[in-house]
Specification:
single chain; alpha+beta; Helix Hairpins; D-amino Acid Aminotransferase, Chain A, domain 1; OB fold (Dihydrolipoamide Acetyltransferase, E2P); 6 domains; five-stranded antiparallel β-sheet; 22 strands
């Protein structure tokens, strides 16, 4: 791989990992499994190691995932809250031990092995034994104050038992039991609402709600297992800490091991794997920690992770069953997705009868046929995936699956034509079949359900069942038509059958109407994402919303046209190379003409890049520009715009005006005297500047407060200008 190819790949991976971080930490709605995410992140880390010239302090491999959201007060941790490095194999676990033996100059190391709880990390501060604050990990040095929500957890004592330190930060995990998760999903199913994916995401989404009364309705739990700041020091090892946590009356892990050497640690990891399904909380791995706190301090930490601990991640649960049939579902984008209909099998505390097969190419690559024995995996999602078949046990006469033949060349829902399109698959870019009818009933229902989802407009109460019924009754064609459906109609909506009616009800209808009215005030980025514009994901919608005032400006965007113009110029630049081997010049005269044209192209590109496209991120590329402009110029897109105008819905963009910080990049470190970090960041953005997570030669200012860390040292080393809050305010004026 050349350096240029590596830089392109690194940039793509950083964007992709950052998008998944946003979905996991802030949205509590991951789209891929932990294993798939770790593969992406490890690939990025490997490339950064091979090409250190492209290292960046703000790379996702160098920082803690940020779970802060708007609406909560931001609080500094007395001691930084890190995340753990992880591994999926024994070799890497033993390499962790080898690194420590070299660092500590002894191979006589004692460890604790504890369950890795699948929940939301939290830090509790007790002063003189009384709980005064609960804070999320945030971005490591600062997190969200969620004290009011944590106080709804019945198992958490407000006062520690016995003697307690003057100040102590106790770290742990907030989780939801499987029983509570199933209770909530049963309620949502009865109301026709979208089901929650898994207990971890549900717990994370719950604890970040602004209304603690709503949080109290869902019975969250907590377990404590680690120590942050403590004054005076009361324990000297992880084992002593476990005993102290129990003595204080705090909920702790059911079982942990204190072992000597890596062989005993590996044996404990195996024992935990056999026990973990009996625990009240979800456990997706084992955490191996140096037991002695003094050795922990000697080992130290990176900006992201402690060197004295590692998480060994267990492989997701799997099961074998028989594939009875393959049926076809049509999603909101029109993609025809094959679904495995299985003989029911017990997996991860649930009975599974359906699983995703991704697409036809994946079925063929894995050689999966109807009637086969298959292995399925549940990696945290509602519908598990089929991993593989067992050809050696295949029944006679099993046929390869042909989707086109199975549906007779037409959409199984609307009967419209289908066509092959490129899609992302587990093994790269593949192909899938897509219904060409935008008004297909299945697509309409899918778009309506997504429109109301928590990631989009958060119109709670409208899940897949309600969406399908509204479309079936022709009450909704396009998602905004939901605003025309009367409360009385919603209240009497029958989600069942004539023989077994299941009425939506006035209470649910009232909640839905209130939620849809609240969505009117959401910004352009939310509406753009909610309307399922092709190629516009969540982060892309955010960037478009920051650069356009409203839909009118977006649909005739000079910026998007400039993106397309730049792409065309870059393509032309390649064809105009005087020394091109693919397209050689006919004679010297043509070479000169090409040289002259390339000079013109360079000038045009420079004008675009230094002008209208200055600071435009990679998310807004030519594919996004083309699909956005084409969609709103199409009949369905124009129809949506007319409908929004009729409803008097004109969501505003969060446009960044040119200001005193235009073209300037800031890095923030430490605690400011009167201004919260989030407030300072907003002031920088409003004045046209950017905020970065790491200091480099390109950094314009480091805004430093009390207890500034390594970023301040880095700024001084590089000669970057350091300012305090007073100077920052002066610059703003």
């Amino acid at each position: 791989m050349t350096p240029a190819e590596a830089y392109t790949k690194i940039s793509m991976l950083r964007t992709e990992v950052a998008q998944h971080d946003e979905l996991y930490y802030r949205g509590a709605r991951p789209e891929i499994s932990d294993f798939e995410y770790d593969v992406l992140k490890h690939s990025l880390a490997d490339l950064e190691a091979q090409f250190p010239q492209f290292a960046a302090a703000d790379s996702p491999t160098q920082r803690v995932g940020d779970d802060r959201v708007q609406g909560f007060k931001e609080v500094a941790h007395r001691q930084k809250m890190l995340s753990l490095d992880n591994t999926y194999n024994e070799t890497e676990l033993r390499a962790f031990h080898t690194r420590l033996t070299k660092l500590l100059e002894t191979d006589d190391l004692r460890y604790t092995v504890e369950p890795k709880i699948d929940g939301l990390a939290v830090s509790l501060t007790y002063e003189d034994g009384r709980l005064i604050r609960a804070v999320t990990r945030g971005k490591g040095d600062r997190g969200d104050d969620i004290t009011a929500n944590v106080l709804t957890i019945a198992s958490l004592p407000r006062q520690l038992s016995g003697a307690a330190p003057r100040v102590v930060e106790i770290r742990g995990e907030i989780y939801m039991t499987q029983a509570e998760f199933e209770r909530l999903n049963a309620e949502r199913a009865a109301a026709g609402e979208e089901l929650y994916a898994n207990p971890r995401n549900t717990a994370a989404g719950t604890i970040k709600q602004l209304d603690s009364a709503e949080v109290a309705k869902r019975k969250l739990s907590i377990v404590l297992y680690s120590l942050g700041y403590c004054e005076p020091e009361v324990v000297r090892s992880q084992t002593e800490l476990q005993e102290k946590l129990s003595a204080w009356g705090l909920p702790v892990v059911e079982k942990y091991w204190t072992v000597r050497g890596i062989d005993e640690a590996w044996a404990a990891v195996g024992e935990l794997d056999q026990l973990r399904r009996t625990f009240a909380y979800g456990t997706d791995g084992a955490v191996v920690k140096l037991n002695d706190f003094e050795q922990q301090r000697t080992a130290g930490a990176t900006d992201k992770s402690p060197r004295w601990a590692i998480a060994y991640k267990y492989k997701p649960d799997t099961a074998r069953t028989r594939l009875r049939a393959i049926t076809i579902q049509v999603g909101k984008t029109g993609i025809l997705s094959p679904v495995a209909e299985l003989e029911p099998v017990h997996l991860s505390l649930s009975t599974i009868s359906r699983a995703t097969l991704h697409n036809e190419d994946e079925i063929r690559r894995k050689d999966i046929r109807v009637g086969d024995l298959v292995e399925i995996e549940r990696a945290g999602e509602v519908i598990p995936a089929v991993l593989r078949s067992f050809p050696e046990e295949r029944m006679a006469g099993a046929q390869e699956f042909d989707l086109f033949a199975a549906v007779g060349g037409n959409c199984p829902v609307c009967g419209g034509k289908i066509a092959r399109v490129d899609v992302d698959t587990e093994s790269g870019v593949g192909a899938a079949w897509k219904c060409q009818n935008y008004d297909c009933r299945a697509q309409r229902a899918g778009r309506l359900g997504f429109f109301c989802s928590r990631r989009a407009l958060a119109i709670d109460g409208l899940g897949e069942t309600v969406a399908a019924k509204l479309v079936e009754l022709d009450l909704v064609r396009d998602p905004p038509d939901l605003y025309d459906v009367l409360l009385e109609t919603l209240a009497t909506l029958n989600l069942g059958t004539a023989e077994e009616p299941r009425v939506f009800g006035e209470k649910n209808a009232t909640k839905l109407v209130a939620a849809r009215e609240a969505a009117r005030s959401l910004p352009l980025e939310k509406w753009l994402f909610a309307l399922s514009v092709p190629d516009v994901g969540e982060s892309t919608a955010r960037e478009l919303g920051r650069r356009h005032r409203n839909f009118a400006q977006l649909t005739d965007s000079k910026l998007l046209r400039a993106v397309l113009q730049r792409a065309a110029l870059e393509d032309e630049k390649e064809t105009q190379s005087p020394n091109s081997k693919k397209n050689p010049a006919k004679d010297d005269a043509e070479k000169e003409r090409r040289k002259a044209r390339r000079v013109e192209i360079e000038a045009e590109l420079a004008m675009l890049n230094d002008g209208i496209l200055r600071g435009v991120p990679s998310e807004i590329g030519p594919a996004v520009a083309a699909s956005t402009l084409e969609f709103f110029a199409s009949e369905p897109g124009r129809r949506l715009l007319v409908k929004l105008k009729t409803l008097d819905i004109d969501p505003p963009g969060t446009v960044m005006e040119a200001g005193v910080f235009t073209g300037k990049t800031f890095v923030l470190t430490g605690t400011l005297p009167t201004m919260r970090r989030e407030e300072a960041e907003q002031k920088i953005l409003a004045a046209g500047g950017k905020v970065s997570g790491g200091v480099s030669k390109k950094t314009s200012f480091v805004l430093a407060g009390a207890e500034a860390g390594s970023k301040l040292d880095k700024a001084r080393e590089l000669g970057v200008r350091v300012i305090d809050e007073a100077e920052f305010s002066q610059l703003l004026r």
